């Protein structure tokens, strides 16, 4: 045969092992979720064989009649989900989506204003180790020390001082909602574009459970695999297309629209052929997200996060900003005399997966950190409810308070493995 049929046991045995790990433990990494079997099927389909540079109906390759229809379905469903009029579903990831926007809107050396990484922002919003911080001049706003919340007056002062070409909002570890209207007013005041990166709360935004970023932002980016519960990937959206403010013209001398610049920013600007199997999986996930069931899911994600935050607070844990509006929270472990690194390494011994995370004004390095970030998107998909969140916090507290007692860690792990059998994920 031309296609090898011998099973690669070396790799597939490891995939089976990873499935077992996912199914037997408690997954609290705020950026993760579990896709449906249908999303997985699309992601593992024959579409991986197809090249389709370009956009539906305007490709540089033949044989795109079918993938054109699939990509158009993904676009149309994304528009419906978020109330967008223009969407590009091709970015391979959230970082790719942001990079494409920067390429479309900025020149090397331009100033950008983003949310500080150490306060919960993302690497792609101006970190010196990312292209956004290397090719542009990054400036930052953060949260206030006393409240753990963004003070928009300070954002305005910073914007007036730094005169950015682009203001970026959105975060990886910020548990409060965003005032997009205020940020747009600030952007307009200083002549900046407003980019909202809603990678984390996208699923909650799609169901109207958080403020609407598209109502005020020039451009919105997102990943598709966090609360949105799709395959790993990225996407760029706008509610209102507009003429680019940079004077970039078409060959005919007409001003190019932002949508055309953003399309070019993705391909050929920063990517080659789109991953049509992943785009099909996005289409399936968006179809699921349009359902009423997904509304119930999103409501439960929020309710679970609130139950979890309350359970932590009642056991004397400190949550940055004092609580959560979305699916995640950032816990400062300094009052418990623990580091994020110790917490992460100990919890994993009991099959509880979280990530260590810097807290605002952290005095420890990013490899150690003073905090942990936890989120409820994945365990809500498994079917866990508010009372289960309480039980998870009981386990976390038990593990952290007995972090050097291997017998207790082993007992908790056994109990968790037994408990999780009641919440099956995938058929083996
Ligand atoms: N933007 C934000 C706010 C994120 O939290 C993330 C992922 O953690 C990204 C962008 C990057 O997404 P990806 O890992 O898909 O490149």
Automatic annotation (TrEMBL):
<keyword id="KW-0808">Transferase</keyword>
<dbReference type="InterPro" id="IPR015421">
    <property type="entry name" value="PyrdxlP-dep_Trfase_major"/>
</dbReference>
<comment type="function">
    <text>Catalyzes the reversible interconversion of serine and glycine with tetrahydrofolate (THF) serving as the one-carbon carrier. This reaction serves as the major source of one-carbon groups required for the biosynthesis of purines, thymidylate, methionine, and other important biomolecules. Also exhibits THF-independent aldolase activity toward beta-hydroxyamino acids, producing glycine and aldehydes, via a retro-aldol mechanism.</text>
</comment>
<dbReference type="InterPro" id="IPR015424">
    <property type="entry name" value="PyrdxlP-dep_Trfase"/>
</dbReference>
<feature type="binding site">
    <location>
        <begin position="121"/>
        <end position="123"/>
    </location>
    <ligand>
        <name>(6S)-5,6,7,8-tetrahydrofolate</name>
    </ligand>
</feature>
<dbReference type="GO" id="GO:0004372">
    <property type="term" value="F:glycine hydroxymethyltransferase activity"/>
</dbReference>
<dbReference type="GO" id="GO:0032259">
    <property type="term" value="P:methylation"/>
</dbReference>
<dbReference type="InterPro" id="IPR001085">
    <property type="entry name" value="Ser_HO-MeTrfase"/>
</dbReference>
<keyword id="KW-0489">Methyltransferase</keyword>
<dbReference type="GO" id="GO:0030170">
    <property type="term" value="F:pyridoxal phosphate binding"/>
</dbReference>
<feature type="binding site">
    <location>
        <position position="117"/>
    </location>
    <ligand>
        <name>(6S)-5,6,7,8-tetrahydrofolate</name>
    </ligand>
</feature>
<dbReference type="GO" id="GO:0019264">
    <property type="term" value="P:glycine biosynthetic process from serine"/>
</dbReference>
<dbReference type="GO" id="GO:0035999">
    <property type="term" value="P:tetrahydrofolate interconversion"/>
</dbReference>
<dbReference type="InterPro" id="IPR049943">
    <property type="entry name" value="Ser_HO-MeTrfase-like"/>
</dbReference>
<comment type="pathway">
    <text>One-carbon metabolism; tetrahydrofolate interconversion.</text>
</comment>
<comment type="subunit">
    <text>Homodimer.</text>
</comment>
<dbReference type="InterPro" id="IPR039429">
    <property type="entry name" value="SHMT-like_dom"/>
</dbReference>
<protein>
    <recommendedName>
        <fullName>Serine hydroxymethyltransferase</fullName>
        <ecNumber>2.1.2.1</ecNumber>
    </recommendedName>
</protein>
<dbReference type="InterPro" id="IPR015422">
    <property type="entry name" value="PyrdxlP-dep_Trfase_small"/>
</dbReference>
<keyword id="KW-0963">Cytoplasm</keyword>
<keyword id="KW-0663">Pyridoxal phosphate</keyword>
<comment type="pathway">
    <text>Amino-acid biosynthesis; glycine biosynthesis; glycine from L-serine: step 1/1.</text>
</comment>
<keyword id="KW-0554">One-carbon metabolism</keyword>
<feature type="domain" description="Serine hydroxymethyltransferase-like">
    <location>
        <begin position="6"/>
        <end position="396"/>
    </location>
</feature>
<dbReference type="GO" id="GO:0005829">
    <property type="term" value="C:cytosol"/>
</dbReference>
<feature type="modified residue" description="N6-(pyridoxal phosphate)lysine">
    <location>
        <position position="226"/>
    </location>
</feature>
<dbReference type="Pfam" id="PF00464">
    <property type="entry name" value="SHMT"/>
</dbReference>
<feature type="site" description="Plays an important role in substrate specificity">
    <location>
        <position position="225"/>
    </location>
</feature>
<comment type="similarity">
    <text>Belongs to the SHMT family.</text>
</comment>
<dbReference type="GO" id="GO:0008168">
    <property type="term" value="F:methyltransferase activity"/>
</dbReference>
<keyword id="KW-0028">Amino-acid biosynthesis</keyword>
